[in-house]
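Model it.
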Amino acid sequence: MTGTPEESFSKLPVYFHNLKKHNPGTLAYIQTNLEDRFEYCFFAIGYATRAFRRFCKKVTIMDGAYLKGKYKGTILHVVAMDGYNQILPIGYGICPKETTDSWAWFLEKLHECIGDLEGLTLVTDKAASIAISIQNVFPNAQHGLCGFHLIGNIVHTFGKNKKTKILLWKLVRAYKTTEFEQY
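Modeled.
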């Protein structure tokens, strides 16, 4: 038998406590407003942040997705790719909507997990709220734009063209400057 959303939500502090207790290095936070109502949450499992710092290219992908149902909001997430091109989830957060404040809070918590990494690149869509927050929280990191979003913008602006789309994906996936310039 399942409980109500309110009952599940009331168990979030206990869930976060147990995550930290049983997963060394895990960070989990809940922030409330002045009326003690939920505002933000963030969690990152310790093994995932350690694996990212030790074994992955220092490239992350961040985005938000709308929550549907009775309780609206946005889930924020940051992932990386491991050496086998498998997704490694690093951190998740929930906020009312994507704003500069919500992204700044999320990135501050992420910074606690991964620190200042040399050569870090944060790949996102082109939302100004993310760009401003990255500049403030990770001033030494590179901010890259997602190839999927770039291609979508080009298709929207110039129309569908299969040849252009293939060329753009080659450009996006080029790892060397010479390869990029060749295309």
